[in-house]
Every structure is written in structure tokens, then in C-alpha cells.
Amino acid sequence: MRIKEIYLDNGATTKVDTKVMEAMLPYFTEKYGNASSSHSFGQDAKDAIEKARRVIAKSISANDDEIYFTSGGTESNNNALKGVAFAFKSEPKSEKTNRNHIITTKIEHKCILETCKWLETQGFTVTYLDVDKEGFVNPDDIKKAITPKTILVSVIHGNNEIGTLQGLTAIGKVCREKGVYFHTDACQSYTKTEIDVNKQNLDLVTLNAHKIHGPKGIGALYVRKGTKIIPWQHGGGHERGLRSGTENVTGIVGFAEAVKLAGKKHIEHMAKLRNKLIDGVLKNIEDVRINGPSENNYKNHYGEDKRLCNNANFSFKAIEGEALGGYLDQKWICSSTGSACNARTLEPSYVLKAIGLTDEEANGSLRLTLSRFTTEEEIDYVLKVLPGIVKKLRWISPIGKVVNYILKKQ
Ligand SMILES: Cc1ncc(COP(=O)(O)O)c(C=O)c1O
């Protein structure tokens, strides 16, 4: 008999909250107008979009007209980088506009790294900064990397694999002082910690809905008023000319509902269970390390959280993470190794390599990501079954046999 699954892959995606679904339903069958139509059906859809825009703007202390809806995180990241880069390229050259340099880090999501790679083929230069062993980029390194040619700094807020939350305030200060734009990809961190575009000096922010119990295929890009950016998708001039295409009204309504439902109590719930999970694994299993920030609850100088409240990423010695994930799946526990977008490759995760792990350590990694629906019983169950699975895998793996042999000899 199939028991209820324990879904600990919320960093990949989350289940749509039933309240989100209920809010969306009328916009499929009753209020299905095109927001560009002037009749009342169209205007109902338009009103719904504008109400949703207000909710999302308020959640990051932005103005309503600084929020642009897109199809998700990938599109927002592409639009932010390409839109700003080409805004500079297409202007008549002057000392101010003759800039072609972008700064990012080695631990960005693929959609930033691939966009940067492509921009390099279009005459832009990109600096990929190192991070420390917990995954933090040093704001001083950003300061040193900025040149008179720099347009934009793009740094992921919450890392999708290791849960490191970058210190946005410190990075924002550097960018503001130096007069360069600051973009952050906040897909993993949105509603899980504070984002305030003014306190943190953010010029562009990428958001999406499917990591926060909203639907897939909807996201937003915050663009500070006055930021030089050109549209990347042309057409009927929707979203004030920045993103053409008939608006995904159902998705937008669902996105805003998901934001409304998110709350501080959920952050506290996830953080408590994450701590229990991390502490339990480290206490009950030998030869395991936590990847990302080493302490669960710590905050930086500006009071910002340093670890995502729902992320735990471990490396187990002498074990293949893939095998571990397979055994957990047999117990109906959904986990992941590396990020979902990377999980199909057998390459060790570039994020884990960037924080200094060996190939073997990176291949022994397991990511467990919680949601507000995760229960204490589920974490207890994981803590009960995981040590036995690790022991068994260590026993049957060839490297495990050698390690066991060495351990026994000592
Ligand atoms: C940090 C980060 N950025 C961007 C994305 C891509 O977002 P989407 O799936 O909405 O395109 C994801 C999702 O995997 C992510 O975790």
C-alpha cells in the first residue's frame, strides 16, 4: 500500500495551495476576458491584474508600476540581464553609456549563467566571482571588480542548492556608491525572508510563484523607476511596453494569492523543522557535512537571515547522492541531489564545487527542502529511516567498503 509521500523537494517546486487554486478558478471559466479588451469582461481581468500587482509591489516595498509580470524566474532573469545590457549597447555612445561589463557569481542559477555566457558572445564581458566555503560572495570583491565599464551586478539572493542568503544590503550599498545597477534573483527567497528594494538598494528583482505554492509559469520582474532597460519580447506593448503578450490572468491572480497567504509564522515553522532536521542528521549519522551556512539561525551585520528557512543540504561520505535519493524514494520521501535543473546530468554540482567540495563530496550530496506544509512527524520519519539507508549504502558501495575497512582498522 502506498503511504502518503513526504515531499522534501520544495526547492524544485511546491504544491499549489488550495486557496490559491480557488482564487484562480473564476478566471478560467467566468472572468476569462482579455485584460486589453475595453468591455467589462476585459476590465474585470485588468482590475484583477492591477490588484495582484499591488500585492506583489507591497511585499517588497516597491511601487505598483515597478512590477512587470513575466512567465517566471527564467524569463525575468533573461529580461533583466539582456534588457539592461542592450539598453546600454543601443544608446549613442558617450562616456556614461559606453559600458559593457557585468558582474555575477559562480553559484547563480543556470538561467543567469547561460544568459551571461550568451551576452559574452554579443560583445559584453562578464566577471564570475568566487564565493567562500559557505557560499557567500564578499561585497569587497564586488567593489574591486567594478570598473568604469560595469553596467550591472547580478547576485542570487537565496541559493537554490545550498540555501545561502547573500547580504543584499551590503552589496546594494556598494552598487549604489559605485553607480551600477543591482539585480537579484530572489526565486528561492521570496516570502521566506525580508526583501525591501529600498533598504537593500535593489534596482531589479526576479520573482516567481511556483516556489511559494503558486502556479507554474508566472513570475515578475521588479524594475526600479528610471532604470535603463529595453524590452526583450516585442508585440502588443503589454506590461507598459516591457513584456508583450496577453497577460496570464489566472497565473497572476494565483501568484498574488500565494503571496498573501505567506507569513512570518510559516518562516518560523520551516526554520524550526529545518533545524531539527539538520541537527538530527549531524548527530545521528557519521561522516556527514552540512553544505552552505554552517549555523542554522544566524544573521548578518544588517540583521538579514543567512540561511534559507527551508533548505538543508548534506554531503555523506562514501555515498552516491543519486543512490540515496533512490532509496529515499522507495520510502516515499522526495529529495533531490543538486538542483532540479541540473539533476539529469551526472556532473558534480558546480555550486558545490564553487564552495570547495571535491567531486566525491559533491556527488554524495542530498538536498532536502521543506515547505509550510511539512510536518514534524515527516521530519521524525526521515530522521528515523535515513541512518539505516546511509549505513546500508556505505556497506554496499565499493568506496564505502574501503572506508569501513579503514575505520575498523583504526
Ligand atoms: C534561483 C532560481 N532562479 C530561477 C529559477 C527559474 O524559475 P522558473 O522555473 O520560474 O523559470 C529557479 C527555479 O528553479 C530558481 O531556483
Explain what the structure shows.
This protein has 410 residues and is α/β, with parallel strands linked by helices. It folds into two domains: 156 residues, Aspartate Aminotransferase, domain 1, CATH 3.90.1150.10; 244 residues, 3-Layer(aba) Sandwich (Aspartate Aminotransferase, domain 2). The protein has 14 helices and twelve strands. A seven-stranded mixed beta sheet has the order 2-8-7-6-5-3-4, with helices on both faces. It has a three-stranded antiparallel beta sheet with strand order 9-10-12. A two-stranded parallel ribbon has the order 1-11. Helix 5 links the parallel strand 3 and strand 4. It is globular, with a radius of gyration of 22 Å. The two termini are 44 Å apart. The model has no long low-confidence stretch (mean pLDDT 94). The structure holds pyridoxal-5'-phosphate. Pyridoxal-5'-phosphate binds next to helix 4.
Task: Identify the notable features of this structure and list them briefly.
14 helices; single chain; Aspartate Aminotransferase, domain 1; 7-stranded mixed sheet; Aspartate Aminotransferase, domain 2; alpha/beta; 3-stranded antiparallel sheet; 410 residues; 13% strand; globular; binds pyridoxal-5'-phosphate
